[in-house]
Write a structure and sequence with these properties.
Layout lengths: L3 H10 L6 E6 L7 E7 L4 E8 L3 H17 L7 E7 L2 E7 L10 H17 L12 E2 L4 E2 L7 H19 L5 H12 L11 E4 L8 E5 L6 E5 L5 E4 L1 H9 L5 H11 L5 H20 L4 H12 L1
Helix pairs in contact: 3-7, 4-5, 4-8, 5-9, 6-8, 8-9
Amino acid sequence: MNAQPAIERALVEAGLNSKIRSNRSLSGGCIHQVIELTLADGMKLVAKVNSSENKGLFEEEMHGLRALGASGAVIVPKPLSVVAHGENAALLMTAIEPPNDRRSDSAAAAQFGADLAALHQADVGERYGFEMDNHIGSPLQVNSWHDDWVAFNAVNRLGFQAQLAREAGLLNDGQTKSIEKLIDRLDRFIPGKPKPSLLHGDLWSGNALPTLARGGRGGTYAVIDPACSIGDGWADIAMMKLFGGFDESCFEAYRASIGAPDDVEDRLVVYQLYHVLNHVNIFGSGYVGQAMSLVRRLVG
């Protein structure tokens, strides 16, 4: 992929006249090519590049980053431009600067937990959904608005993912019926009216980068690659706990600010099931056993 023309066009669209001095590929891009740029004036940027038909994915990401950035609660890259040029599309954004000292990871994790609590406590209205559908990995994430959180999850989260997997032949009839049984009883495990919160949506450890807290005092984590929606803040925590990688001090700081409801463990299982079903649809049947284990924890 010759990404240079699209990146240069993105620089022009962002109003940046400095030339590219150097570039290097960054790891972690499962779908897109990710490139760190150093401009002639020393400014560091990150460009994500894919084929031109994927411009919409970059527009979704830009929208999510702007929403998170506008909250003032968490640190995110600032999206600068999205372009389609020739065969390629590019998203240009500021780079996240790493801290000079990583020895206080526990303190940084605690600060990040407090940052997330602030994000989830911000007023974002009374409904669940988002201004647009987006993607979580390659599958579509449906964000149509609902007044009831149980209905939102039944239709847009578990129901949608289970249907995708069934149609792809990744779930058999018995497995599908077990998930449908859980969906029918979903109001036993998650609340109908939790406080609506802006969610990152795909908060595994690879999407949290160590950086300096605002004001340069101590460390925290910046977040990248969102799949935003408005829902129960504990859905972000569920994803963070699903695959590990976050210090316990992060969750302690979050709970200290938010408090933990009595039904939190059941909530976490429901929200984790959504992500595991999404992994079934991305990576295949190897995740089906984990998905069904989560189902059995709730409905046997």
